[in-house]
Specification:
The protein has 70 residues and is an all-alpha fold. Helices cover 64% and strands 0% of the residues. The longest helix is centred in the middle third of the chain and has 18 residues. The radius of gyration is 18 Å and the shape is elongated.
Length: 70
């Protein structure tokens, strides 16, 4: 979670419960206006994806079978 996301959540939490839904709906509308089909990446998402792609290309990942899921 980015610092900005945390700030937004903290600010919404400060609002009275009756106003929180309105704030959520406004944010939802802004996100949908920016990316209606949820295909765009933010700069931090792009950076994380690029890093992950490098790790995969360099075989720097952990196999699911190597993880103790219990």
């Amino acid at each position: 979670m980015s610092a900005v996301s945390k700030q937004i959540i903290d600010m919404i939490d400060m609002l009275p419960e009756s106003e929180q839904k309105l704030a959520f709906e406004m944010i939802k509308r802004m996100v949908l206006a920016w990316d209606s089909d949820f295909t765009k990446l933010t700069s931090s998402e792009r950076a994380r994806l690029t890093e992950a792609e490098k790790e995969i290309a360099n075989d720097e990942t952990v196999s699911h079978s190597d993880i103790d899921w219990n």
